[in-house]
């Protein structure tokens, strides 16, 4: 206001002193006019602000409504995605399980029933493999599109993974359930037009009724799953209602190729069979749900693997992907005349071709007193048992390991690295794979690492405390070694009880007789892996070689030649080929050792070369590499090799294995053309295999 008066005084020419009457009049008029203008401006401003405020309020309101609407749309979208299958648009596993749980909870006191159908497309993998995954995805969409309209509004239709669907039919009666399932089955029995393809794809369906076949979700789905697999085993393209007989011995099913055993040999045989005979059905029976990588077992006990789960192989997913039926069951009898087997859970299964791959089991040293006492652990290829071993020894401080083969040595090293005191008892280390000087190198690496080695000593007894638990071992020298537990790594023996019981011809070391194509004396029956006979590549005598690499090679030969000879086996005899790691140093061997050659009266010659595995040797991470080659003295044919060095020896021994298998001589190796590089290999001037061959060749011709 003060500034307003000053401005008006300036306008009437006031320069100081008293105002004249005229000036006063002019001043009062100016002030009144300015006030009116100011008041008008104020009212205009107030009116403008009022309008702006209302517009802003409306704008905020509009924005809030839009945000709320978009948020609701997003929430609805994400809710839909959370409970629906992204590919087909029908319900997903999460929605199915939530609804089933709630449904079963509400049905507890109700007399009404519902049916659960487990639907699996037959040989869906072939569609993906031959026509591509896009066609496979479109087929899955067509399945959902064809079946959905035929269901009631309160039924549930879900895709739970891959080509597996579940349908829940509400409020059914036993009198009409078959007609409903018939209708759904017929929907899958028609041809499918996908893009430009006319596909003949069928489905196997299993049906379970609540509460007759299961009173909770897990049991009900398992019953439907079992019934679905019975459909597949009965020839696919059908539906089966769950019955107790689905899993008991009075049922009957048939498969083209039946494999007993789900270890490396069995699973490779199954996969190879599918590759060569894709039109044939393949079934694998294995006793344990979970499979282990056999050679990975020692590393469960150290720092390499975090428990048994890290060594497991996902057989179920793998077999499903390959189109193989996997049964967790046990075979109790084989009828070769009627080409069938009896099982504990799945009744009688007929076969066209049978592969026995029952593997091996730990050898029990019955000559050791109390060999089965509490606190004495063995090392089978059984995930559940190995977990018990792992849990049983993890809190022990001092452990006796009996046996100095690969399993014993590797477990001893791993346990020692985890801070335990180890008493290792047995002959020189890995004596069947390496000559003494190599065993000595291993021993020098292991000693002082928490391992005390009782070399060439024999365990005669295990002492126990009052509760019967092992607390000491007794050596043949009379020495008593106290310990908290014992691990028996005394080797394995073929698991051939079933084969012997069924009348198969047996050979040395309790193995099943086979020819070079792994055929037994019974028509259409093959044996592979640890349970099958092995003949030495030089002497042709039986040898107790049990290796996953050998087993899988036999599996490929047997499976490829089930129905006709597809793969000619050009090499007769088994090569023992090994590798291991001790304290970051790699040891590997192939063929026969010099010591064993002498024992078998084989006239042999050997040489040892030591080179740097990089050139020049000053390069970072350069290591010494020791190569020993054993050859026939008369012909120079290479029959054995042993290596020490860095990880490179793991592949170099495979090269030497091929050299031995192909009966190459040291003279062939003199012309060996190899790729060398400073960071990867020894120098071309002294490549170890060539250098060793040259040493033997020069000695043969007297240079």
From TrEMBL:
* Alphabetized UniProt keyword annotations: FAD, Flavoprotein
The record's section on SMART domains has: GGDEF (SM00267)
Q: Which residues form the GGDEF domain?
A: 112-244
What Gene3D superfamilies does the record tag this protein with? 3.30.70.270, FAD/NAD(P)-binding domain
Q: List, in alphabetical order, the Gene Ontology terms for molecular function in this entry.
A: oxidoreductase activity
Cite a single Pfam family from the UniProt record. Answer: GGDEF
What are the required cofactors?
Answer: FAD
User: Which InterPro entries does the entry link to?
Assistant: FAD-bd_OxRdtase, FAD/NAD-bd_sf, FAD/NAD-binding_dom, FAD/NAD-linked_Rdtase_dimer_sf, GGDEF_dom, Nucleotide_cyclase, Pyr_nucl-diS_OxRdtase_dimer, Rev_trsase/Diguanyl_cyclase
Family affiliation? Belongs to the class-III pyridine nucleotide-disulfide oxidoreductase family.
Q: What is this protein called?
A: GGDEF domain-containing protein
